[in-house]
Amino acid sequence: MDRRKQLIVFLIPLLSALVFASAQDDSPPCDPILLARMAASCVGYLVEPPEECCQMVVAAVGLGYGDPVPCLCRVVKEPDFPATRLNIDVILKMYPICDGVRPVGPNTAAVCR
User: Which region holds residue 39: left if phi is over 0, alpha if psi is between -120 and 50, else beta?
Assistant: First the structure.
C-alpha cells in the first residue's frame, strides 16, 4: 500500500469519530438570564407545569450536567430568579414531571450551594 492509501485508511476513522463527537454536542449553551426569566412561568404549577416552564426546568437541569458549575447554579444566581420565589429544590422536583431524563441525585442541589 502506498503512503497516500495508508494515510486515507488512517484518516477516515479519525474524521468519522470527530464528526460523531461534534454531532453529540449540539445542545444549546446555557443562557442563565433567559432561563431565569422563563422561571416566572413556573410559579404555582408543581403538578402540571406549562410548556415554557418545562423548557426552562429541563434546560436548567440538563445543560452543563456534570460540569463544575452546572447551568442550574447559574440560573438561580441571576437577579431575576429570586422574584419567582422558586428555589433549586422546587426545580429539581419539577424535573421528572417535565420528563427530564438526566439522573438527579440528592447532591445535585448541594453542588450549587
Answer: alpha
